[in-house]
Amino acid sequence: MAPPAQSQRSQSPSQPSGKSEVSDLKLQLRQLAGSRAPGVDDSKRELFKKVISYMTIGIDVSSLFGEMVMCSTTSDIVLKKMCYLYVGNYAKVNPDLALLTINFLQRDCHDQDPMIRGLALRSLCSLRVANLVEYLVGPLGSGLKDSNSYVRMVAVIGVLKLYHISASTCVDADFPSTLKHLMLNDSDTQVVANCLSSLQEIWSAEASTSEEASREREALISKPVIYYLLNRIKEFSEWAQCLVLELVTKYVPSESSEIFDIMNLLEDRLQHANGAVVLATVKVFLQLTLSMTDVHQQVYERIKAPLLTLVSSGSPEQSYAVLSHLHLLVMRAPYVFSSDYKHFYCQYNEPSYVKRLKLEMLTAVANESNTYEIVTELCEYAANVDIPIARESIRAVGKIALQQYDVNAIVDRLLQFLEMEKDYVTAEALVLVKDLLRKYPQWSHDCIAVVGNISSKNVQEPKAKAALIWMLGEYSQDMQDAPYILESLVENWDEEHSAEVRLHLLTAVMKCFFKRPPETQSALGAALAAGVADFHQDVHDRALFYYRILRYNVSVAERVVNPPKQAVSVFADTQSSEIKDRIFDEFNSLSVLYQKPSYMFTDKEHRGPLEFADELGNLSIGEAADNVVSSQRVEENDKDLLLTTAEKEETRAGHSQQASFGIDDLLGLGMPAVPNVPSPPQLKLNTKAALDPSTFQQKWRQLPIALSQELSLSPQAVAALTAPQALLRHMQSHSIHCIASGGQSPNFKFFFFAQKYEESSNYLVECIINTSSGKAQVKVKADDQSTSQAFSTLFESALSKFGTP
Question: Which InterPro entries match (predicted)?
Answer without folding.
Answer: AP_beta, AP_complex_bsu_1_2_4, ARM-like, ARM-type_fold, B-adaptin_app_sub_C, Clathrin/coatomer_adapt-like_N, Coatomer/calthrin_app_sub_C, TBP_dom_sf
